[in-house]
Structures are given as structure tokens and as C-alpha cells.
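Worked Example 4.2. Consider the chain below.
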Amino acid sequence: MLTRYAGPALLLAIAVAAWQGVASLASVDDLTLASPVEVIRALGADWRLLADNALVTLVEVVLGLAIAIGAGVSSAIAMHMVRPLRDAAYPLLVASQAIPIVVLAPLFVLALDYGIGPKLAIVALICFFPITVNVLDGLRSVEPSVLKLMRSLGASRFATLRKVELPASLPSFFSGLRVAASVSVIGAVFGEWAGAEEGLGRLVLLGNNQLQTPRVYAGVVLLAAMAVALFLIATLAERLAVPWRRLEVSR
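Applying the procedure from the previous section yields the following C-alpha cells:
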């Protein structure tokens, strides 16, 4: 167990040491690059401010991710059940990813005002695609022989969906969820940059404008930690919900 995490821990230690070394060079301006030591000091000195804003961002991320899960799974099931809908909607779903979120963020703010609404919409939008596509692929991954067996047993279309296709799609769902959990923080930050009164994204933007570099890096570290934590939670949820997947991987 320890050897499994020894490599990542060593690589992280090397990266932090290199970061400290570069930041300590006389030619590097403190306003450009804060050292790990300065970031740790900022985390301690501004902990209350950072924690309060981190909580705001976390709420936006969790609620937006929940909306994306509900909308993504529902859309995937609908496209799987109705072939004409899939043929019509899937190309549009793929094409929607060509639109930069940073462009859409101000439009959401204009449409939904400066409250939590635009942040939820942006997080949900950025998480919707990986969840929908992965669930749809999972639903379509069932072996034809299994579907034929269900039909021969007299199972209805919805019974086959509930008993065979949905369980089979769980590994794909969690694969999409891990991707969505990792990028959900990006959506919240874009939303806060476009217009917000609080949140880590806004705090990082203000710190950058006020040349408070250590606070900016401290906010970025917390955002990265949030994304990693959400990824790990999604991985743990998969192990609990799909125990047979873990057994297949361990073989």
C-alpha cells in the first residue's frame, strides 16, 4: 500500500523542491512567483478568508455537479432509448464542446444575474458532456447476446434497461464522473471571474490585481486540492457502487 503512493509522493516532493529552488533565485521577482514557503505562510495568515471563500466555491461545484449528473444521465438514457433523438442530438452535443466556456460565462451572468445561478449553470455545462457521453457509451456496451436473452425471457424494454443496461453502464458513468469532478472547479472559477462577490476564483482574481502573489498561489493550491478531493470521492464511490469492477481490475 505504501509503495503505491511512494512514487507520487516522491514526484510531488521533487516538484515542490524545484519550485522552491526557482522561486529563491535572485533573478525571479517575488511578485511573479511565490515560493512554497510563502504560500504556506499565506495559507496560515489568510486561512479564515480562504476557507470562507473555498466553502462558497465548493457549494457551487457540488450543486453544479449534481445538476450535471441528473441532466447527463437523463439525456443519455433518452438518447439510448430513442434512436432518432440520439442521431439528432449527439452531433450537437459534440459541437457544443467547441464553444469556449470562458466566452459563455459572461453571457450566463448577464442572463442569470450575479447570484449563484450563473456559477451552477457553468459548472453543470462543463460537466454535462463527459457524464452524458460516458453513460451513453456504457448503455450501448451491453453484449447483443445478453439483450437477446432478455427478450427471449419476455423482459420489457424498461426491464432490460433497469436490470441489465443501467448496471452495465455504471463503470462508464463513474469514469465520466471522475473527469467531470476534476473539471468542475474550472467551471466555478470561470463563473466567479465573470461576476461574483465571493468565492476562491474571485479571491484569486482580486489577489492578482492587488499583487498579493502568495495569496493567489494559496487560492490556486486550495482549488487544486478541491479538484483532487472530488476525484478521490468519485473513485471511492465507484468502489462502493461497482464492487465487481474492482475485482476485475485486480485480476
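The longest helix spans residues 157-194. The chain has a mean pLDDT of 85. Compare this with Example 4.1 before moving on.
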